[in-house]
């Protein structure tokens, strides 16, 4: 996988407003937030998109989902938040390093666009 802006954030080559990190993942505020809480959660291990995941990624993906809930609560979303993963350019993915959008802090309409 080629380097992306998110690998540069992991390597601390460019700044980010980091709200959580552990040995598996890193979470930072989206630079163009779509809600009062808009955090991106990424794995340190590079995977371009969810559609490329395989059985060997199960533990990492489960870890990300558990941490997404913890981060949403820590950011003040209570029990109402949304996790979005855009997989592929046709779904709106712009950065090809897997990331979970954690959105909250306002009413979230359904269906999304
Ligand atoms: P996606 O369209 O799902 O690939 O989402 C990419 C997200 O990354 C967008 O919401 C951007 O606003 C966000 N983004 C791009 N560059 C940065 C950056 N340097 N720091 C934080 N968020 C970023």
Descriptive overview:
It is globular and about 35 Å long. The chain has a five-stranded antiparallel sheet, covered by helices on one side. With about 110 residues, it is an alpha+beta fold. About 25% of the residues are buried. It has one domain: HIT-like (HIT family, subunit A). The model has no long low-confidence stretch (mean pLDDT about 95). The protein contains two helices and five strands. The longest helix has 17 residues, at about 60-75. It starts with a helix and ends in a 9-residue tail after the last strand. Bound molecules: adenosine monophosphate. Adenosine monophosphate binds next to loops.
Offer a few descriptive terms.
113 residues, HIT family, subunit A, 5-stranded antiparallel sheet, 5 strands
The portion of residues assigned to helices is 10-25%
CATH-assigned homologous superfamily: HIT-like
Class of secondary structure makeup? alpha+beta
Identify the CATH class.
Answer: Alpha Beta
- How many helices? 2
The CATH architecture category equals 2-Layer Sandwich
Average pLDDT for all residues:
96
How much of the polypeptide forms β-strand, as a percent range? Answer: 15-25%
For the biggest sheet, the summary is: 5 strands, antiparallel
Ends distance: 28 Å
Q: Write the CATH fold name.
A: HIT family, subunit A
Gyration radius, in Å: 13 Å
Number of strands: 5
The total domain count is: 1
Short description:
The chain is of the alpha+beta class and 113 residues long. The protein has two helices and five strands.
